[in-house]
Design brief:
The chain is α+β, with helices and mostly antiparallel strands. It contains 3 helices and 9 strands; from the N terminus they run ααβββββββββα. The longest helix has 64 residues.
Length: 230
């Protein structure tokens, strides 16, 4: 009987305290604190995944990194009150995984990503962060795209979203170059044709103008000679 009474007393003493630490007001305060957490993405061709410690890039003959389309996710503003769950990869980041509140992880998937920020103590979601990871277009640095802007040909843009094989990419770029060369040739030919057409339509005026100018010049020369002789 005494043991049951003691258990009942302990329940009334400790349970309210736990609920008080995780009540709505406390969660609201944690939610405000979680606003300091930022999750962004950017391209990094020399990415080292801080979480796994793996590097994922190749080196060319000159010792320079070769882009492989790696994107890095940067999580900052983390504090010990929270843990973050990456729902895409189903992995959890604890405060101990961070360095000075910052964590860098690689992303092999593009598209929408969702992260949930939990209270470490209450295990309640206090914030959900959605970000879009763009797809890096590895063909944007291909020599075939040199001198071609994204506005001219979308497939040469850094963030071209459609996935195509190299043969298709090569065909698209070569077709664009051939079309552009043809347009430039047509434009150049058009200018020549316009000049020829202009002279064809107005050559009589030019001849008459030239004759008039020649007659006027001749008259002036004759008058000057007469004035000298006098």
């Amino acid at each position: 009987m005494k043991k049951k009474l003691l258990l009942l007393v302990l329940t009334f003493v400790f349970v309210p305290q736990v609920k008080a630490d995780c009540d709505r007001e406390a969660l609201n305060n944690l939610s405000k604190m979680a606003e300091n957490i930022e999750i962004t993405s950017e391209l990094d061709i020399t990415l080292e995944d801080q979480y796994t410690g793996n590097r994922d890039y190749s080196i060319d003959d000159e010792g320079k990194p070769i882009p492989r389309g790696n994107m890095k996710i940067i999580i900052s503003g983390m504090s010990e009150e929270f843990k973050i769950v990456d729902e895409t990869y189903n992995r959890t980041f604890m405060y101990s995984d961070f360095t000075d509140g910052i964590l860098i992880v690689k992303s092999e998937l593009n598209g929408q990503r969702r992260f949930k920020v939990y209270s470490s103590e209450c295990n309640e979601v206090v914030r959900t962060i959605n970000i879009k990871i763009p797809r890096y277009n590895i063909y944007s640095t291909d020599p075939l795209c040199e001198g071609i802007s994204e506005d001219e040909l979308a497939i040469c843009g850094m963030w071209y979203e459609k996935e195509v094989d190299y043969a298709t990419f090569e065909k698209m770029v070569n077709n664009y170059k051939e079309k552009k060369a043809q347009e430039e040739a047509e434009n150049s030919q058009g200018i020549i044709e316009k000049v020829i057409s202009f002279f064809s339509n107005y050559y009589l005026y030019f001849i008459i103008g030239a004759v008039v100018i020649a007659i006027v010049a001749l008259i002036i020369i004759i008058r000057r000679k007469r004035s000298v002789l006098e």
